[in-house]
Amino acid sequence: MTEYQDEAYGEPRKRSYPNTIVGALILLFTMGVFGSVAWDAYLSSDKDKTGVRRIFAKRWNDRTLVFPIDGVDRQGRRALFDVVVLTKNYGWVRGSTTELAKDDRRLSPDQIQDEILAPQLREGLGSARGLIAVGLASQEGEVAREEQRGGLRAVRIAQLVQDAVGNNIPMWTLNLGRYVDPCAECEDTDTSWQRPFIVIAVRQADEGTHISEALADAMSGTTNLPAPSRYSAFAFTKFQR
Prior knowledge:
Elements: E1 2-5, E2 12-15, H1 17-43, E3 58-61, E4 64-72, E5 78-86, E6 90-92, E7 100-102, E8 105-106, H2 109-116, H3 119-126, E9 130-137, H4 143-165, E10 171-178, E11 198-205, H5 211-219, E12 235-238
Parallel strand pairs: 9-10
Antiparallel strand pairs: 1-2, 3-4, 4-5, 5-11, 6-7, 7-8, 9-11, 10-12
């Protein structure tokens, strides 16, 4: 027990430091537990109870959404990606491998340059370490035919993007094939959301990373991106004109 002087009254009083220390430790422990719980809640705020993730997007302009994701290859090497997606009113004309549309309006080559390959998209993709043009098809049609269509769409996107940003950035194509996971409760006759315009920018990657493996891992288990499990293929190829 240690005496200390009460400045207000000048009377010597006794104080128990052990009790004070114990109280402080309890307070620190409580704060630590609360902080840990709050941090865990923050980290899991984009997941449902099954662990499926909803990726939060940022915008490059009023029609271009960017979803940051990361994944690892089978050796544990990590890569970071930006999935660049046009809003749902833009996409492929049904059945076409060359024509894009906004709602029901088919876009001319000039409109594709002005609306899709806008300056913000060119600037954002131009700083990537690598680019991946993604082709995919909606649920109508026979699988093999739609996979072929998805491949041709990926090539077309690669051509458009390379013309816009130059050929100094490595380019791959990714054919996801046909959408194969219909949901009777959530779909209507409009399936355009199953065939969006997508380009993926490789932002960072550990040395030696197997990009396709890391990308497949990054895209898996997401609710608002085209997870590989919901499409019929995952064909990753180096693009060459």
